[in-house]
Write a structure and sequence with these properties.
172 residues; alpha/beta; Collagenase (Catalytic Domain); 4-stranded mixed beta sheet
């Protein structure tokens, strides 16, 4: 594996994207590049749920950006769902080339709290590292601090590290 690509789809703050890329690159010790790709997300919108279909968006990322020797994660600012869950923070193909992550539910303002850009960046890095971990073949981990621990709520993300535990790191 030679490269990780972070591709922003739709609106994404450029400075946040660059800061996140630095942390992801440091965690995986792989070159990480960022791409701003303005893509209309409306075809993925489900008006019944008032959310965006993560399965369809992930398939788009895989079809549009898949390349050998790289992992690609699409970054969005919209609310994602899969049919069996009310919402998700992200999703990835296990042992695959593509993933998706959204910062929509990672923002403090959604929970009636004061905006905190540093916390948003930290949460987003954890979610990206988690989803990329799946791309590299990792499954959920039971170590409470490991980034591969499953996160149902944003508080779960806050409690874990942005790094992999020793066991998960050894599988990368």
């Amino acid at each position: 594996m030679n490269l990780i690509r972070l591709i922003s789809l739709g609106y994404f703050d450029r400075q946040l994207l660059e800061n996140v890329a630095e942390d992801v690159s440091a965690c995986f010790t792989l070159k990480t590049e960022t791409i701003v790709h303005f893509h209309d997300l409306e075809p993925y919108y489900d008006s019944n749920r008032r959310q965006y279909d993560a399965n369809r968006l992930l398939a788009y990322i895989e079809a549009e950006f898949r390349q050998e020797h790289q992992k690609t994660i699409g970054l969005v600012s919209v609310d994602l769902f899969i049919p069996i869950l009310t919402y998700i923070f992200g999703q990835a193909y296990l042992n695959g080339y593509a993933a998706i992550a959204s910062f929509y539910r990672l923002q403090n303002e959604l929970y009636g709290l004061k905006q905190n850009n540093l916390l948003l960046k930290d949460r987003l890095v954890k979610e990206i590292n988690h989803e990329l971990g799946h791309c590299f073949g990792l499954i959920h981990c039971y170590d409470p601090l490991c980034v591969m621990r499953s996160s149902t709520y944003v508080e779960d993300i806050d409690q874990k590290s942005k790094y992999f535990c020793t066991k998960c790191q050894s599988h990368l």
